[in-house]
């Protein structure tokens, strides 16, 4: 499987309003793909279609080699998802959250024990494993949420503005986790409104008013728009 995601004329309408307007793109296996756009550009709506939570109004798409229209339930088994809002249970412990989501994703008890130990060791949280998640700093919560989204070794992980509200140093640590996952062949599909993070992606698409207005590597887009930074590229497009 060369492409982890393909989309052709993918469209989502709400009555007379078109939130996602005939977008076409592909994401390669093992690629870190940035999906950028201002608030209301259609990014989250597009993600909801790709993960099977919202039915497209038109077009075609595949995720992890599966057809979005006919195999959406199977797609959910092959992907991980992390919302821009923290998605773990704050009144459960770190260990209980990992165990719970491992069960939701269909892992067996032995697999859950192994994965739990690995996540706690990776995040250096062994001594806090039985503390409630609600007591963790936001940066640690986000890193834990990312690890839980990967607990079942998905083919593709969707990250919807995962670093919102965290400090620059923590954002950089989070991106190191993204690189580590991608280096193992996992595809990362990430939305962000931080233009400096766009530089970390292998390729970027920029949505404006429901359409993909630009698509390419950061260097290609800066050259195309005669810009010194992705901030300049983005401002020229949205204006």
Structural topology:
Blueprint: E1 3-14, E2 17-28, E3 32-37, H1 43-50, E4 58-63, E5 66-67, H2 72-78, E6 79-82, H3 94-104, H4 109-122, H5 138-149, E7 156-160, H6 168-183, E8 187-192, H7 195-198, E9 203-208, E10 211-216, H8 218-224, H9 230-238
Parallel strand pairs: 3-8, 3-9, 6-7, 7-8
Antiparallel strand pairs: 1-2, 1-4, 4-5, 9-10
Report on this structure:
- By secondary structure, this protein is α/β, with parallel strands linked by helices.
- The chain is 37% helix and 27% strand.
- It contains nine helices and ten strands.
- It has helices at 43-50, 72-78, 94-104, 109-122, 138-149, 168-183, 195-198, 218-224, 230-238, and strands at 3-14, 17-28, 32-37, 58-63, 66-67, 79-82, 156-160, 187-192, 203-208, 211-216.
- The strands form two sheets. The chain has a six-stranded mixed β-sheet with strand order 6-7-8-3-9-10, sandwiched between helices. A four-stranded antiparallel β-sheet has the order 2-1-4-5, covered by helices on one side.
- Strand 7, helix 6 (168-183) and strand 8 (187-192) form a beta-alpha-beta unit.
- Helix 3 (94-104) crosses helix 4 and helix 5 packs parallel to helix 6.
- The chain is globular.
- The termini are far apart.
